TrEMBL record:
Name of this protein: Protein GrpE
Organism this protein belongs to: Paenibacillus azoreducens
Keyword Chaperone belongs to the record: yes
Compartments where located: Cytoplasm
Assembly with partners or alone: Homodimer.
NCBIfam families in UniProt: PRK14140.1
Coiled coil regions, renumbered to chain: 57-84
InterPro entries: GrpE (IPR000740), GrpE_CC (IPR013805), GrpE_head (IPR009012)
Gene label: grpE
Length: 209
């Protein structure tokens, strides 16, 4: 009887030890699962933070590119505006210079017929000895008048003997000439004038053929 009782007690103790070991294993497994879940959560959080940093960096890079492109566009616009302003300033300055340079052209153009009449009067008076003194007086007035116009930049063209140039000459007739080759001005019907470097009135001429 004592042996059976002792056997039963040993068996109970073994069962209790086995249950305690099973419980301990279950607790260890549960703890291991908890640790694994924590590590998985930490890893997930780490990946999320890294992904967020990558996204922020890409966003900043795109924003920098956008702002750089905008700055380049503004710079190009500023350069074009500056160039347009420089061209406008130069054009305006040239127009003002031309206006000042040729401001008297209208007046001088109106005076040209007077010069023509002076020329004709002097030529006619030269054929009459009786009015020699008159011719000298008219000639002096003409030279004075011519000097005033010359001071304004007016110059008479030298046309006779020059090759015909449509920029300076207006041909009214072609004539045969033994003295000149073809295309040479042989006679000046009406004087041509330059105002500084501009043709104010072309010379009216006859040209050899």
């Amino acid at each position: 009887m004592e042996n059976n009782k002792e056997f039963q007690e040993n068996e109970i103790e073994m069962n209790e030890n086995r249950e305690a070991e099973i419980a301990e294993n279950e607790n260890e497994a549960a703890q291991a699962g908890t640790d694994a879940s924590s590590k998985a959560e930490e890893h997930t959080e780490g990946n999320a933070e890294e992904n967020a940093e990558v996204i922020d960096a890409a966003h900043l890079q795109n924003e920098v590119k956008r702002l750089q492109s905008l700055a380049d566009d503004y710079q190009q616009r500023a350069l074009r505006t500056q160039a347009d302003f420089d061209n406008y300033r130069k054009r305006t300055l040239k127009e003002k210079e031309d206006f000042a340079k040729y401001a008297s052209s209208k007046l001088i153009t109106e005076l040209l017929p007077i010069i023509d009449n002076f020329d004709r009067a002097i030529a006619a008076a030269g054929d009459s000895p009786e009015i020699e003194s008159f011719a000298k007086g008219v000639s002096m007035i003409f030279r004075q008048f011519e000097g005033v116009l010359k001071a304004e930049g007016l110059e008479a063209m030298e046309a006779v003997g020059q090759p015909f140039n449509p920029e300076f000459h207006q041909a009214i007739m072609q004539v045969e000439s033994d003295e000149h080759e073809e295309g040479i001005v042989v006679e000046e019907v009406q004087k041509g004038y330059m105002l500084k470097d501009k043709v104010l009135r072309p010379a009216m001429v006859k040209v050899s053929m």
